[in-house]
């Protein structure tokens, strides 16, 4: 998310280069972030990732066993 915010890549390929990660890994991560409403894929081919939110808060809590 920081790379998308800082560099505003114009394609998934560009994001892969910035992250130094293979395209399938980036695509899976983007799909999960898109389902969560954090990232949007915009434009026509090539689609580019954009942040759909300004802030993300994650709350952690302990699960009670049994």
UniProtKB/TrEMBL annotation:
<feature type="domain" description="HTH arsR-type">
    <location>
        <begin position="8"/>
        <end position="40"/>
    </location>
</feature>
<dbReference type="InterPro" id="IPR036388">
    <property type="entry name" value="WH-like_DNA-bd_sf"/>
</dbReference>
<dbReference type="InterPro" id="IPR036390">
    <property type="entry name" value="WH_DNA-bd_sf"/>
</dbReference>
<dbReference type="Pfam" id="PF01022">
    <property type="entry name" value="HTH_5"/>
</dbReference>
<dbReference type="InterPro" id="IPR001845">
    <property type="entry name" value="HTH_ArsR_DNA-bd_dom"/>
</dbReference>
<protein>
    <submittedName>
        <fullName>Helix-turn-helix domain-containing protein</fullName>
    </submittedName>
</protein>
């Amino acid at each position: 998310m920081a790379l998308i915010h800082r560099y505003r890549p114009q394609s998934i390929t560009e994001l892969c280069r910035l992250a130094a990660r293979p395209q399938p890994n980036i695509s899976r991560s983007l799909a999960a972030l898109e389902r969560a409403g954090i990232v949007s894929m915009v434009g026509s081919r090539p689609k580019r990732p954009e942040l759909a939110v300004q802030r993300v808060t994650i709350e952690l809590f302990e699960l009670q066993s049994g």
